[in-house]
Every structure is written in structure tokens, then in C-alpha cells.
Amino acid sequence: MQGIKRNFLSVLVCLVAVFTVASCGKKSESPQSVSQKEKKSDSKYGGTLVLSTISDPKSFNDIIAKETSTTVITGLIFDGLVKMDSVAIEPIPALAESWDVSEDGLTWIFNLRDQVVWSDGKPFTAEDVAFTFNDLIYNSDIPNSARDIFTVDGKQFEVTVINPLTVQFKLPTKFAPFLMFMTQAIMPKHILEKSVEEGVFDSTWGVNTPPDQIVGTGAFLLEKYVSGQRIILKRNPKYWQFGEGGDRLPYLDKIIYMIVQSQDVQLLKFQRGEIDYYALRGSDYPILKPEEKKRNFTIYRAGPAFGTVFTLFNQNSRTNPETGKPFVDPVKLNWFTTLDFRKAAAYALDKQSMIKIVMNGLGYPQWSSMSPSAGFFHNDEVIKYEYNPDMAKELLTNAGFIDRDRDGIVEDPEGNPVEFTFITNSGNTDRIKIANLIRKDWEKIGFKVNFLQLEFNTLVTKLNATYDWDAAMIGLTGGVEPHSGRNVWNSGGQLHLWNPLQPKPATDWERDVNKLFDSGVQELDRNERKAYYDIWQVLVSEYLPVIYTVLSESLLGVQNKFGNLNPTPYGGAFHNIEEIYIQQK
User: Fold this and answer.
1) What pTM did the predictor assign?
2) 226 is in which domain, residue-wise?
3) What is the C-alpha to C-alpha distance for residues 58 and 327, in angstroms, rounded to an integer?
4) Is 50 exceeded by the pLDDT of residue 39?
């Protein structure tokens, strides 16, 4: 769904003890020199990159987006003050060409690039940065996950305009990953200010918005969206970045996202050469690997995926204010909040069979909240619930869940049969196969599971808006910085999916996790930071708000027609999209 939101992912950048200036980015160059420079490599310009997605976007509003079906598009339209170098895995200049940081690490001054303009020609200024934070992210009337990230110990950053090309951030406390989170997309004040004043920002830039009204500073602009068919983006001719040879980027004319029904359709279209990129499932590898030379594509193996895929039970104890009824049936809520019930569900999962049957052996069992690919902050010393259905049954029995009438379904201590609905998103065939295996695993220990596939955006709405679900299987994008998951792990977070937006922590362990994240983000010593996040990962494995399943091998299939292609485990195949060009058009 991480996620359901955009990746704010990167490694830790330690704050330094003196004012420092980062000047590793290229400055914007004068428009007068553009035409001459572009002539240097006209052969690189033009062409279309064709990609695919199995979900329509929910909107084109990056601030309120919580799902990748939206942010995969908005990430091309909007830029942040910095961006991530996917090779070095560190922040580098973007809309800001440099920055200064005070000795105590609490004051950051960003020097913005001169002559950057929005796609409608209006100048980009520090007012846009201040507006994005003060009027959008920190606006309590606007639901967004970024507010969780940019709040430390309950306190917000002070964002102040110094002059049109200088903006200052004053932090309430030390915030170790501050710079990497400045990938946050910046929004145009002159376009969106009115919608905020009128209280309609949440519905602004929906999927029915005329494309020319969506204004960004990114490498591409929305050209056309046809529901259920395609999303077309076109080159932003006013994009601020230049290549090493002085060419104004990007090189590509268009990017087309074909909206298809499933991964099976994606595979077929990749084999036919109708799409340029395909993220392989393990089961696809023996099919596509022998075809590499014949069909002129390359498969890149990049190790365990960064994301997470997990099951979870709805522990939302609140009441629907519109109906006056609990979001979750109290009988089911009692099951789902019973720790031994969740532990039994964890012991019942046969992860090795998932890897063997679904992934063709190209996968890894996941036990911790951070993927092994996260490196330094991954903690492997967590509780691992190896497949043990006998242990699962013993835990259920001890908790009073017994099959009293011997019909194969256990009843709770009050005699209620344990039956619930288990949902995941349609179109993702691997996820559906794994969910079906999980359903069978749970049925073996006495649960009656009604499996249901939902369109992705419908699933997301249930999880973070209507809360009308029992159990679910979903994925979040992951990365190398733990604090990027604060909107998931803080008890009041928008994406605290099993029991979101808690006014105060519902359990002691959730309170402890809140403190760990608040302390960890303020610790500048990298090893000390790791200690906080190691404890968090242990607590998650102990209390099981989510039950992790398996990680796929990152397998990237790309047609052999692109220049400047440099796939990385962190950034994928097209992390440097503005620099990529088609070798033969």
C-alpha cells in the first residue's frame, strides 16, 4: 500500500557539529543557454517509456495520498528540496542547491535554486516550501501521513521564509534523519492556497481534474488519464535539471502507465514487448530467463525486496460516529486483541511452502519489521514463529478456543465459532496465492476463513477510512530509515492500520514504541539509534500487531533499449528516470 505512501527512504545522515554547506548538486542554468545545449545530444531526446500498473490512482494529490497507486504518479510530477541518490543511498540537492546546518543541529537553512519555475511558468520560491509544511502538512483538517513523520515529541518544525530563495527550518529537538525526509514533495502555493482557505483541499486534484490544472516542478506532467486504461505523462519542458553534458532533462517525451487487470497480463505484455519493464514473480523466472536473448531483455536480480507483506487483524476498539456501532464486532474484537490468538495465527503460517509453491524458491521468510535489505537497522534477533501448527493449537486451547462440537471450527470461551473475512487486493496474483495458502493454514487450526479479493483502492479505503474489515493481507514499501515508518508505528498514526488514530496508546507496548521512535529520531549516534530500533522490532515480534509473511527476490525485467540505465536494489530500474533515454527509437 508504503507502503501505501511514498518512500521517504534512505540511510542515516549524521548531523555535523559545525555549519556545513552541501554543494554536490548542479545549479540551474540560464534559459538562454538551453537551446544550444540541447543540440549537443538531440539523438537522446524523444521516445516513450511504457510501464504498467494493476491499480488506478485514487487522486493526483500527493499530500493526502496513502497508496502507491497514486504516489507512483505524483512522484514524477513533484520534487522535494532534496532527492535520494539510489546508488550511494544518500540525500543530494534537488530544489535546494545547498543547505547550512547549525552546530546544535536544530536550525537548517535551505538555499533554493534560482530560476526554477512551476510547469505553468510561475517562479518556485520559499513561499511554496513554507506553504507545503505550514498550510498542508501541519494543517489538522487535512489528513496526511507526512504529519506523523514531521512531528517529534508532539512538536512541529517552524518553517520560515527568509527571502524568496531561502527557507529556514527550526527543529524543536534533534532529528537525525531530517535531511533525508526533505524528499517531501513541495506543492504550489499560488494554485492550492485558495482550496485550503475554502476547506476543499481534500477533494482538490482528484482523478477528474483536467491535467493542465495539476502544476508541478517534476520531470514529467500529467497529460491524460483514462480510468481503467492508461495514465500518460509528458516531458516537462521547464524542468530545472541539466545532465552532465548540459542537456536539459528529461530525455524521454512520455511515460505511459498501462492499467492492466493482473500480474499475469503484465507478464504477457512484457513478453510481447508491449511494456518496457516487469517486476518478476519467482514463478516467472524460469519462464523468462531462457527468453532473455531471443526477446532482447535483461533480468536483474537485486536481492530481498525492501518492502513488507503481512497479515493483520482489526483491533479498532472505537465506535463509528455515524452509526453509533463499533467498527469491529465485539466478539471478533475480543479474538483479535487476544495475544495467544495472534500467536497461534503466526505459528500456523507455513512460509517455506509459500516460497516454494508461489515464488519458485526465490523468496525469503520475513520475521522483522525491516527487510534484511535495509542493512544496518535490520534486527534479525527477533522472535521467529517457525511453522508449528501443534503449537498454534495448544495456544488456542490454553486461551479457551476449542472445537467443542467437533465440526472442525474452534469456538471461543463463550461458544462463538471463530469465523471471519480475510481480504487482500485483486490483481496481485502472488499475493492472492499466498493469501489462499494462509487461509488453508488457518483452517487447519480451526478458523473458518472467508477469503475475499478487493480492488486495491477499495481495500485501502476499508483499512484507513471505513474500518469495516476483519483480517487483511497488505504490503508496505520499506527502506533503510526506520523513522520513515513512524506513521505506521506511532499509536496515533494515519497508517497504524490495526488500530489507527488512537488518542492515547491502547496498550503498554504501543506506548513504549512511541517513546522508542521519539528517542531514536533524536539520537545522533548511529549505533545508539540502532539500539532503539532493535527494541522496537523485538516488541513487534512479541506482540504481533502484524504477522509478516515472505519477501520476494527483487527481479527486474527490462527491455534492452535504454541508455543510462543503472538498476539498484534500493531504487529499482528507473530511479534516474530523468537521465534515461531510448537508444534506438
Assistant:
1) 0.75
2) 1-259
3) 24
4) no
